Every structure is written in structure tokens, then in C-alpha cells.
TrEMBL record, chains A, B:
This is Aromatic-L-amino-acid decarboxylase. GO terms for cellular component: cytoplasm. Belongs to the group II decarboxylase family. It comes from Zalerion maritima. The modification N6-(pyridoxal phosphate)lysine is found at residue 334. Keywords: Decarboxylase, Lyase, Pyridoxal phosphate.
Length: 523, 523
């Protein structure tokens, strides 16, 4: 494919892509293909000879599109959104054009420097304290990871090795290296990563990868499914009494089930008191608190969100020296209009990563890295190579401006409130079908179908949930909270408007009425 | 940005991107900016109000381009290539358009199914045995990871937990669970991952992440820097004698320093004999051999490469049941014309990953995953979400055809041979400046400047290397082999032609002559 053929192919693709975006609402939101559908449509092997672009492009509509679940569909209200935008796509286009494996600064200084700068921009726009900026006095800074899962495994591994090194610091030198090694190995088997039972599954997977124990602290309806400082304190003491060593805690702003916000103020106090950030003769070091704000964190761009009590504590209530929140992560690729993947992670001190993740073979050495004056992001992450992902973030921030993004986040919150109000008010219309379980919070409402007891509620909620998804007009997901089945509706995809929220609610009402009627009950 | 504005921005970007590709040779291959250059050119914060695309696009040329090291430049002969192609770019464009976080099959069945199919296509075209195909009887299959680093940490973690579970299987049931847990913790501290000293640094980093010991087996010039079966056998026995438990070995096709190919036949025999794949009362389980063919593996598309002795052993010499090579990885984003990132990993049995990497919270459950009939690639990798990366691989395979890719790989090998022949023959022209250290192998030649002793050789080689890179006409990298400084020249980027290889050699000769003259020696 030469430049001329590429131009034609690209222009034709852009035509088709804009056409796709304009007609998304006419498509079925969830794919209805059966497992294995594609194998029957494609050859057994790659072609020996080149094929023209026209045959490839026509296969996209005929063979690929039927197998696509349309995440940008205004009726996609499942999971959390993976929002797309035109400037985000332009970012991917340019990133592909400037293709390279920019693992070191010199491999393309712009890749590293733009990332550092736009992560400072983003941190400022979210109101993060100065300690997470690359220019702050604690030596912090941001990095783009692929996903929140990669971010959490990276910080958890660094936290593990930081804890092991610091908690055995009293054995450093004086010929005690072997004793220290043994002590580290002994400790390793006793390390525990903490999180709440509502923390995203990536925390458990990160502990699995790092080879440490994982302890989910139960949370319940009484705290709005949020983790409290007291629960954290109790867990630390209980684990220590069992001879274990808590070294890491993932706290969440916006849990996956319910968008709960953990009590950061209380958690930080508990950790500061029980696990202060100093290594002592007692063989304990400080704990690393990581804040997983994967979905909801981007809405910190709104002053009214920053003023929520637990968030105020996160953003301002800590002195740099004593703050145990060593890392914060949010995904601009969820609600933030940056095409997947763009998971932004900030650390309070970059040596917390680089001291534990740096491996330097001869073939990667260069005068710039040796000088210590540049950032080599490979030491902030698991992979070596990296894409030029900051371009799409830069394009989105500039194309929308902070005001445009704020407007987008406010729309999601407003539509979430609308949906929740429909659920609440619907009892007034002579139909008392639903009840709110949690929310609205960050555009997420969790609710269930009413019933005379838990068994009936769960059966009906599940039935409604399954029928609605089988119908294919809207796509929603479910969860289980303390044994109760519940439906999650998220109203923060880019193209969702009031009409779609009302329509989704009407479908839910219709389906719940059907189910109630069939069951012969009043619902 | 609406559809109309996007079309204009995209068409204008495509115009500029093709223009960039056509004028790459006129640019300086390595960026010459100083650390921190970009911060002085950009505002301190993100804009509050939207900016038009025209201001963003003009910043690309004026602010970003100076900080780009041009990996597609025909004079880029450093590291290994990160090759770009027009169909690869179209793949990124479509992947961004069909944006989603396809962690489960139902999240977009096409994302999963196309990946499975094109990885079967690719495996067949590389001549991989049927056991790595999704359709083979061992239940294998392929997956696209971001990088070889992510692939190796994923298989190493699975190997660790597989070994721990299998080697304690005799303690399963009968109320011995606590004893088993203790035994696993005890074993964990004794596990060792093996590799050769020439294995890519990602193996060491993977061991660090997984929290296990790493043992590099020394290799030297006498085996062409390749790992032998005998060295592996000796290492296993020596480690066991020290009370340690080798559970994983990374063998390499095409090491980073020299493109050495390990002795797969000998390694497999040694592992089969000393660490057969069965769990026994002796508390040992089989070892997992992973083949890292990150750079060179794609050239298995050439029959003449497959016929090389150690590769024949890898591809055909093993019965499925006894083969310890449980995983193979190669990066189509290096030599393979698929834009970064596209690291293809195959396993002989997919349960070797899914049994150890699956975490299933309520909010990810769905009828398709529960049915067991579909692949959920999230259980084959660290991240949860994933991009539609198989599109770009599909587009490249179809646009070039296997024949077109074979031609591309043959060109690289031929140009590598040309460069090495220039180094070798150059003595005949009255200048006896250089000597080959290794190669040519897979387009890589490693050589050094001659000198009367090691000290002089190293000093002159380093001086030539640094001056050439400072000159900025070509970009090369160096390595250190057994204490000897050496220069690596790779001739496999997409746009490199004979004239660029001859030109690079002329620059090296000129620089070496200068250095020799200044030193007053004969060179």
C-alpha cells in the first residue's frame, strides 16, 4: 500500500467511521451473534497474495460489525462507559503515525515530555495536591498506563518491595545481608494487601500476580458500601494479631458496584496511626495507600465534586510528609472522552516506583538516562515499550477545554439523577415496582424490583434484568450486594441524552410489569 | 468537534502524515532537543476553553516533531525496529473508532473471535506446531499482548502458581489444606526463574514482579552467546543442590545483544529429563519453558529460517505430551510491519493461563462466560480491558499477503548480510578497521573497531559509536559482550535500502579513520 492508496483507504475509512457514529442509535446495542460466528465467515489461513483495501473495508461492515457491542450507543448503560471522541481518534491516528517503542527518553523525547506535562495539566484540573505534580517538591509525577489493572499491579509490586526493604533496613550493612535476605523471604509470605470487599477485582488480581495475600475488608449497606477508617484500623490490628503484615491498601473513589466513595480522611488517620511511614527496629514499615478512582476520579474536574466531604480529605487534608496516599489513578478512557487506553497514575514520589522497578541492561544505557536528568517511563511500568498515548489526552483536553469536559461530566451526573428520580417517583404513578439500592452517584443508579421477600425480589430483579438485555434495546449490567441481586444503570456515555434515559426507564417498567403480571403478583 | 470538523481534521492529518512518511529521510534521525525542551513551549495548564484543530495540528510540526526520534527513518539502525505500515495505521484508526473495553466475549464478540482466528493464521504462517493453535487437540491458542514484557510476566506468574499447585498436589484434600498452604509459602521463597545471561531484561523484570529469584545462566562466545542444554541441566542441578526449585526457563530465538538462537533441542531434552511435566511425591513439578522470539520470531515465516537446526527442533521435534515449551511469543510490532503494540503469545494449553489468572466478580458474570463456550481474554493477561488490536494484524496480513511479508523479511536479512560483508571485506581495501563480533543474524551485525588490546579496542569502539550518534546522520546502539564494547547495526526497518546500508558503513569507516588518525595509530 503506497501513500496514494493509503490516502484513499484512510479517507474512505473516515467517511465510513463518521457514518458509523451518526448511525449508531439505529444499531442493536449488544451484539447478537453466537459463539464462533466469525470462524465460519473467514478463511482458514492468511492469504498468500496481497488483497486490495476495498475487500478488507467491506469485510468490516459485513463481518466485524455484527460482532460489535456498541459502547458509544446511547442505550449502552452497562459496566462503566469506554467513551470515544473525535479528538481521541485523531490522537490514535497520530500516535500510530509516529510509531516507535519509546521506552527511554532519547527514543523520542516528545513522548516522555508531553506525557509529563499533560499529566501535570490533568492533575491540576482535578485539583490534586501539588505533591502529585512532576514540579512539586516531593518529586511526584504522572504516567499513562494502559489500564487501572496495570496501574495497581505496578504500585502493589513497588509497595511490596519498598516495605520489604524498609522493614529490614535495621539489618543493612555489617555483614548481615544473608540474615536480611532470610528475613525478607520470611516476611514475604506474611505480607497482606488490603482493600474493601467492594474494591475492583483488579486489586485481587494484582495481589495474585505479586504473590501476596489479599484481604478484602467487608463493607455493607450501613456505610453505603464504603470503607471506613475504623474498619481499616480493625483489619490491620486483626491481621497483625495473626502474625501477618499489612503493607498496602487500595481505597476507592467510585466502586464498581455502587460508586461508593471510601472515607479517605478516616482511612488516612488509621493508617498514619497504625502504620506510619517510617521503618523501625520493630520490623515494620509504613503502608502504601493507593487510591483507585478509575471511573469517578475524572469528575474531580468539577468543584462541586471536590467539595464532597471524603474527597476534600483526600485532596487537601494531608501534609505531604505524613500522607500515606502514595498513588492515585483514574481512567480518562472511561468517562473522560479519551479513547481506550489511557489510565493516568500519579505518585507522590517517583523514586517509589523507580527504586523498585528499574532493570538496566547494557543495550539500554545512554548518556541521557545516565545523566539522571530525564524520565525513562519504562521504570514506572511493567512493559518496556510504550505508545504515544499522551497525544490523545492532549488533543482531548485542548479540543474540549476544561469547560467542555466539565459540561460533559455534569450532563452524566444530571442524567443519573434523572434516572434515579424516575425510579423513586414511579411509585407515585400507581406502580410501585422498583426501589433504589444506592445512588445516584456519578451517573450510576443501582436499584431492584420490589418483592415481598428477598427470594421474590431477587428472582424478579434477575428476570427483569435478563429479559431487558435479551430484548437488546438497551444494555445494562447487574451486581450482587450482600446477597441481593441488583441492576446497575450508568448514564454517562457521550451520546446519551434525556430521551434515552426516559426510554430505558420505560423499557424497565414495561418489563417489570410483564414479569409481575406473569407471576400474578402486584410487583 | 462534530463529524464535519472531524472529517476535515482527519483528512488534513492524513495529508500531513503521508507527507511526513515521504520526507522522513530529510529529517535528523535522532531528536537533538535538550531535556525539558517541551515545557518551555507549552502552557502551564490545560486551556479552559476549546481550541480549534488547526492550532493543535500546527503544534505537532512545530513542537512535537523536534522531539521525535524517527523510528521509520532508513538510517534508524538502533535497538530493534518498531516498524510501521499504512495498513497498520488503518488498523489503529478502526480500533479507535470501535472503541470499547472488550474484556469479555460479549463486550464485542468480534474483538475476541478475530484475535483467535488471526493468531491461528499467524501461527500457521510461522510453522508453529498444531499444539499452539486454538483448534489443536491440546487446547492451545494465541492472544495479543501489548509487549513481550507483559507476555513474559503473565506466563511466569502462571508458571509460578502452576508449579506451586502441582508440586503440592500430594497434600490435596484429607484436611491437609493448612499444611499445603505452609508448604506453598515455603516453596515460594525457593522458586527460581532461569534464563541465559543474554536473555532480554524483561525476564529479570518479570521475576522481580512475580517476587521470585532470577538466575541468569552465563553464556559466552564459545557457544555464539546461545544457551545450551548442558548449561541448563547443570544450572538445574546446581540450584537444586542449593535447596532451590527451578520452575521456569526463558529460552530465546534472537537475543537482543547478538540475535543468538538458543539450542532448543538440547534445552528441551535437559528439561524433560530433569523436570518432566508431572507432579510427584518428591514435591517437584515440571518446568515451564517459554520461548522469547520477540524480534526474530516473525522471520519463521521463511522456510529457510525454519530449517535452521535449533529452530527445527523447536518447531517439530517434540511430542505434544512431552514438550516443555508451554508458551511462545513474538512481536509483530518489531520487524513485522504491525504498528506498536502487537505482541503475539501462544500457549500449548489455555488452561495453563486461565486456571491461574481468573478472577470473577459478580459484575463481570454473564451467560456466555458462564457457559464456558467463549474465550474471555481477560483471563489470559494482566489487564482487564483490551483494545481491538487484531484488526491491525488482520489488515497487515491481508494487505501484504504472506508473500509480501516474506519479501520484507528477506530484504532485511539480505541487507544485514550486505552490511556484514562490508565489515568483513573492508580489510581488503587497505583499511583494517573493524572486526565482526557476531552475525549477520536476522539483519543484525555486531562488530567492533580493531585495536592492539582490549583497552584500545574498547576505547576506540566506544569513541566511534558516540561520535556517529552525535553526528546524527544514522542512529545505532551498542552493547557489552564479555567485557568487550561492541556496536550493533540492524538493517530491518521498512524503508532501509542498500544505499542506506552503504552510507551507514561509509560513515562508520570515516569516523573510525578519524579516531585512528587522532590517536596516531594504525587502527
Amino acid at each position: 500500500m503506497d501513500s496514494k492508496e493509503f490516502k484513499e483507504a484512510a479517507i474512505s475509512s473516515i467517511e465510513e467511521i463518521t457514518n458509523y457514529y451518526e448511525t449508531i442509535p439505529t444499531r442493536r446495542v449488544v451484539s447478537s451473534v453466537s459463539p464462533g460466528y466469525l470462524r465460519t465467515l473467514l478463511p482458514q489461513s492468511a492469504p498468500q497474495d496481497p488483497e486490495p483495501w476495498s475487500s478488507i473495508q467491506s469485510d468490516i461492515e459485513s463481518k466485524i460489525m455484527p460482532g460489535i457491542t456498541h459502547w458509544q450507543h446511547p442505550n449502552f448503560m452497562a459496566f462503566f462507559p469506554a467513551s470515544s471522541s473525535y479528538p481521541g481518534m485523531l490522537g490514535e491516528m497520530w500516535s500510530a503515525a509516529l510509531n516507535g517503542a519509546a521506552f527511554n527518553w532519547i527514543c523520542s523525547p516528545a513522548v516522555t515530555e508531553l506525557e509529563t506535562i499533560v499529566l501535570d495539566w490533568l492533575a491540576k484540573s482535578l485539583g490534586l495536591p501539588e505533591r502529585y505534580l512532576s514540579t512539586g517538591k516531593t518529586g511526584g509525577g504522572g504516567v499513562i498506563h494502559g489500564t487501572a489493572s496495570e496501574a495497581i499491579v505496578t504500585v502493589l509490586v513497588a509497595a511490596r518491595d519498598k516495605y520489604l526493604r524498609e522493614s529490614t533496613a535495621h539489618l543493612e550493612g555489617g555483614g548481615k545481608e544473608e540474615e536480611r535476605e532470610d528475613e525478607m523471604m520470611r516476611k514475604r509470605s506474611r505480607l497482606v494487601a488490603l482493600a474493601s470487599g467492594a474494591t475492583h477485582s483488579s486489586a485481587k488480581k494484582a495481589a495474585l500476580i505479586a504473590g501476596v495475600r489479599f484481604h478484602p475488608i467487608p463493607v455493607g449497606a450501613e456505610t453505603g458500601w464504603a470503607l471506613t477508617g475504623r474498619a481499616v484500623g480493625d483489619a490491620i490490628e486483626e491481621l497483625r494479631a495473626r502474625g501477618l503484615e499489612p503493607f498496602f491498601l487500595a481505597a476507592t473513589m467510585g466502586t464498581t458496584d455502587t460508586c461508593a466513595v471510601d472515607d479517605f480522611g478516616g482511612i488516612c488517620s488509621a493508617v498514619r496511626e497504625l502504620a506510619p511511614g517510617r521503618a523501625g527496629e520493630d520490623g515494620r514499615a509504613g503502608m502504601w495507600v493507593h487510591v483507585d478512582a478509575a471511573y469517578a476520579g475524572v469528575s474531580l474536574m468539577l468543584p462541586e465534586v471536590r467539595e464532597m466531604a471524603p474527597l476534600e480529605a483526600l485532596l487537601a487534608g494531608e501534609k505531604d510528609e505524613g500522607c500515606p496516599v502514595l498513588s492515585i489513578n483514574t481512567n480518562m478512557h472511561k468517562w473522560g472522552l479519551v479513547n481506550f487506553d489511557c489510565s493516568t497514575l500519579w505518585v507522590m514520589n517517583r523514586t517509589h516506583l523507580t527504586d523498585y522497578l528499574t532493570v538496566m541492561p547494557a543495550y539500554l544505557r545512554n548518556q541521557y538516562s545516565d545523566s539522571g536528568l530525564v524520565t525513562d517511563y519504562r521504570d514506572w511500568q511493567i512493559p518496556l515499550g510504550r505508545r504515544f498515548r499522551s497525544l490523545k489526552l492532549w488533543f482531548v483536553l485542548r479540543t474540549y477545554g476544561i469547560k467542555g469536559l466539565q459540561e460533559h461530566f455534569r450532563k452524566g451526573i444530571r442524567l443519573g439523577e434523572l434516572f434515579a428520580s424516575l425510579v423513586t417517583e414511579e411509585g407515585g404513578k400507581g406502580r410501585d415496582l422498583f426501589e433504589i439500592v444506592t445512588g445516584p452517584a456519578f451517573a450510576l443508579t443501582v436499584f431492584r424490583v420490589k418483592g415481598k421477600d428477598r427470594e421474590e425480589r431477587n428472582r424478579r430483579t434477575k428476570e427483569v434484568y435478563e429479559r431487558v438485555n435479551a430484548g437488546g434495546e438497551i444494555y445494562i449490567t447487574s451486581t450482587v450486594l450482600g446477597g441481593d441481586f441488583a441492576i446497575r444503570v450508568v448514564a454517562s456515555t457521550p451520546f446519551v441524552e434525556e430521551e434515552h434515559v426516559r426510554n430505558a426507564f420505560a423499557i424497565l417498567v414495561r418489563t417489570a410489569e410483564e414479569v409481575a403480571k406473569e407471576e400474578g403478583g402486584s410487583g
